[in-house]
Design goal:
Elements (H helix, E strand, L loop, with lengths): L2 E3 L4 E5 L4 E7 L3 E7 L4 E7 L18 H13 L9 E6 L13 H15 L3 E7 L5 E6 L4 E6 L5 E2 L1
Helix pairs in contact: 1-2
């Protein structure tokens, strides 16, 4: 078994026995996609809600919910999985800094954008652990679709 590390603004797919992992999700959101019929899973670590806000369109487009999720879905499709067979689990989107201004709550904006993009692909979210004010690390097992979350607040769970 190997750990496939997904960095910030990165994504990848894996097959069993490998496990996908992404560390330090604060306001970022980790999106796990799985299709149990093909035993393949994917994980994206997105930072920002929309590529429309990008000043440099030649930069890393994996950092945005709209373009990063699209690339992950396309990667899974190239491996025989159609969006209609995928389900999603998401984690992160925390509000890491206290503010009363909605525009600065990037975590909440990220979660809303992720949900919209997944809905556009008609990919159902079957589990989530989002919001609040602490970071998370996600381990995703494509063999059974289990998303293990290790939280900075010490509360660990499996979804």
């Amino acid at each position: 078994m190997a750990l496939v590390n997904i960095g910030i603004s990165d994504l990848n797919i894996a097959r069993p026995p490998d496990t996908l992992v992404t560390y330090a999700l604060g306001s970022c959101v980790g999106i796990c996609l799985v299709d149990n019929r093909h035993t393949i899973g994917g994980l994206a670590h997105i930072m920002l809600p929309s590529s429309l806000e990008a000043s440099d369109k030649s930069g890393n487009m994996r950092r945005y919910a709209d373009t990063g999720i699209r690339e992950l879905v396309q990667m899974m499709m190239r491996n025989g999985v159609m969006p209609s067979g995928m389900v999603a689990k998401i984690a992160g989107g925390a509000q890491m800094f206290a503010t009363k201004l909605q525009s600065f709550n990037i975590g909440e904006r990220n979660v809303e954008s992720v949900k919209k993009v997944l809905a556009d692909f008609r990919i159902r979210i079957v589990a989530q652990d989002t919001g609040l004010n602490y970071g998370r690390t996600v381990f995703f097992n494509p063999a059974d679709g289990a998303m293990q979350i290790k939280s900075a607040n010490g509360q660990n769970k499996v979804l």
